Amino acid sequence: MKISLNNIGRRFNKEWIFKHISKEFVSGNSYAILGANGSGKSTLISILTGSLTPSEGEITYSDTANIPVESIYQHISLAAPYLELIETFTLKEMVNFHFKFKRFAYGVDAKNLISILGLGKSAHKEIKYFSSGMKQRTKLALAFCSDTQILFLDEPTSNLDVQGIKWYQELVADFTKDRLTIIGSNQIQEYEFCNQTIQMSDYK
Ligand SMILES: Nc1ncnc2c1ncn2[C@@H]1O[C@H](COP(=O)(O)OP(=O)(O)OP(=O)(O)O)[C@@H](O)[C@H]1O
């Protein structure tokens, strides 16, 4: 899988957030999109996931053939602060619902996903009663454990404690092989495994 950006720029009203990004993102690699608060990391991720259009430039997705932007959602997983879980579902219902649309990664099923999460005791608790860290773990586990070629993580360790960060790093080791992983971050512990970095300040 390859995502190609050709001279991409995005503005909101008259303010250009970034300009002239030309870059290829290729499976088997992990990319960290880095920059200060408000520098445009989440905006770039929204363009890469196909949920926001660029103001200028072209984005193309290709595997064995080109994939139209309207279909790319089938190939991606995303965990991000602005992506909400369904609060009235229990954890078990949330997992079952998510995997109506995505397949489980190799070797994972609903039962051991909840065990990977370490939330077996909360399987029948509604998400609205979860702490912010429990919600973040749930978002991450759903994204990592889906059988998708592209994994997007925006601020993946927000709300995680020290143990949670270690748990996140174990998921990275277990579930990013052969995938295209793209992380929006300004925390080293989230992206130190990435072999490529993109600095938003280079595109102002
Ligand atoms: N829908 C929108 N309308 C207007 N401005 C927007 C919109 N979305 C984002 N912006 C602006 O774009 C800029 C980049 O925001 P973005 O959320 O991409 O930054 P970020 O690098 O992800 O920040 P953070 O590290 O704080 O999450 C900010 O100035 C923000 O106000």
Helix content: 25-40%
Give the structural class: alpha/beta
CATH superfamily: P-loop containing nucleotide triphosphate hydrolases
Q: What is the level 1 CATH name? A: Alpha Beta
* Global geometry: globular
Largest sheet: 5 strands, parallel
| Average of the residue pLDDT scores | 97
Name given to the CATH architecture: 3-Layer(aba) Sandwich
Report strand order across the widest sheet. Answer: 6-7-8-3-9
What fraction strand? Answer: 25-35%
How many domains make up the 3D coordinates?
1
From the alpha carbons, calculate the radius of gyration and give it in angstroms.
17 Å
Pfam families: ABC_tran
GO molecular function, one term: ATP binding
Protein name: ABC transporter ATP-binding protein
InterPro entries: AAA+_ATPase, ABC_transporter-like_ATP-bd, ABC_Transporter_VariousFunc, P-loop_NTPase
Strands, helices and their partners?
Blueprint: E1 2-12, E2 15-26, E3 30-34, H1 41-48, E4 56-62, E5 66-67, E6 76-79, H2 91-101, H3 110-117, H4 132-144, E7 150-154, H5 162-175, E8 180-185, H6 188-191, E9 196-199
Parallel strand pairs: 3-8, 3-9, 6-7, 7-8
Antiparallel strand pairs: 1-2, 1-4, 4-5
Helix pairs in contact: 4-5
The structure holds adenosine-5'-triphosphate (ATP).
Adenosine-5'-triphosphate is lined by residues 12, 17, 35, 37-43, 184.
